[in-house]
Amino acid sequence: MNELIPMEPSESKKKKAEIEPRDLLIHEREYWESGFERIAGIDEVGRGCLFGDVVAAAVILPRDLILEGVNDSKKLTEKKREALYDVIMDKAVSVGVGFADAETIDRLNIKQATRLAMKRAVEALDGVPDYLLVDAEKVDVNVPQISIIKGDANSQSIAAASIIAKVTRDRLCKEEWETLYPEYGLSIHKGYATKFHREQIMALGATPMHRRSFLGNLLGEQHTLF
Questions:
Q1: Is 126 assigned a ligand-binding role in the annotation?
Q2: Which residue in 105, 157, 205, 207 is deepest, having the highest Cβ count within 10 Å?
Q3: Looking at the DSSP assignment, which residues form a beta bridge with residue 51?
Q4: Which pLDDT score, from 0 to 100, does residue 21 have?
Q5: Beta partners for 45?
Q6: Residue 130 labelled as part of a binding site
Q7: Average pLDDT value over all residues in the chain
């Protein structure tokens, strides 16, 4: 008797699975149907940067609204993020943005500073939300909430918050922060630890907006020029 060999999924089935749209409202619907109307998605950006604030956003979208193209901000082009930023700001019930600067990050640590930025984003909303969908974190507010792993890829509200936070921080890097410290290339690398950024820190020293707790041995004997 011939042994049955498990068959690999056909290429057509694989392709179908890849292009089949993910339901990004599955979490929202669960809580809408439980009586929670104002559901806010929460996400942050800049957690791994050497420079500048960690930025968080909270977004409440209208019930059952589907925003075409909304996804994890890291998977979108800059042009697409900018376009979706305008759509989200236009369609959202409310948007809040919160910040925690480098001094706060060094004083508290990045995890607690991120939570603080998220709390500030929630507090910046117009009114108190009924429920929070948070990307892999907990927010220190008296609002029911759930932490969702890879939330920006599984919740439209969190994905929208991811886009708002990313565009907000990128604009700071390209405009205000680039103007303050033009030698560091912030408009290009957005404060992340690229080779050029690390070389400039070694050559010029750290600015007051660099996260000392992230620099480790990079500074060594380098002195601060600002």
A1: no
A2: 157
A3: 210
A4: 57
A5: 55
A6: no
A7: 90
